[in-house]
Structure formats: structure tokens, C-alpha cells
Amino acid sequence: MKYFLSGLIAVGLSLAATVAFAADARNVTVVNETGYAIKFLGFNAPDDGLDEWDNELDKVLANQASTYVEFDDDDEGCVWNIRVDWANYNETVLWKNVNLCKFTALRLRYDPGTKTTSFVAE
After folding, report:
1. 56 with 100: CB under 8 angstroms?
2. What is the rounded distance in angstroms from the CA atom of residue 53 to the CA atom of residue 44?
3. Strand 105-111 and strand 28-33: pairing?
4. Burial classification of residue 116, based on how many CB atoms lie within 10 Å of its CB (0-12 exposed, 13-18 middle, 19 or more buried)
5. How do 66-69 and 28-33 pair as beta strands?
6. pTM of the model as a whole
7. What are 20-73's pLDDT values in tens digits?
8. What structural domains does the chain harbor?
9. I want to staple 87 with a disulfide (CB 3.0 to 4.6 A). Which of 29, 30, 39, 58 is the partner?
């Protein structure tokens, strides 16, 4: 009985730890399918305006490469704007009002002819 009770306590503690360390619903893997290398990848909430950004990249993100973006507890909401700056071009591209809580991977796409953005969510 002593071992059974100890086992139940251990299982309960491990379940509590798992919940505490569960991934934020907004955390997302970003896959670069734009055709260009990305030097800046930023997220901001639509209410923050379009001038407050932090770069989520440690190095240039090559075309077809991916990066995992984690959100902090003090970040709020599911809907975010995404900004990309190209490594070899002086242009900023925006994806507006993307609900990050609906998927775990985001494949960014860009058509340079029409300068339109799109994404595929997974």
C-alpha cells in the first residue's frame, strides 16, 4: 500500500508538471517558403501599431528553412501581425491579423510579381 500511494503521488506530480510546461497555444514553427532569405522576423499585436517589433531570428532564415517561435506569458491574444525583412532586398512585407492559436506551423509565401503575401497553416 505504501508503494501504491507513493506511485500515485509521483504520477500526480508528473501530470501537474506536464500541464505547467505545456506549450503556449501561440507558439508556432515558421517555414520560409517565400523564395528569399529572411533577416528579420517579427510579431506584434494588431493593437500595438506597426512600429514595435522584435526580431525572432538569431541568424538569417534561408528559403525552405524553419524556425520555432515561442511567446512569453505577458504576450496577450491569439491574433498577431507578422513582419519580414529580406536579407538581400530593402523591402518589408506584412501578414496582418494571423490567428496563431489555430495551428502549430505557418508556411509563409510571397509572390514578388504581385507583391502579395499568403500562408499555409498546419
Report:
1. no
2. 6
3. parallel
4. exposed
5. antiparallel
6. 0.77
7. 445 678 999 999 999 999 999 999 988 877 688 999 999 999 999 999 999 988
8. 24-121 (2.60.40.2890)
9. 39
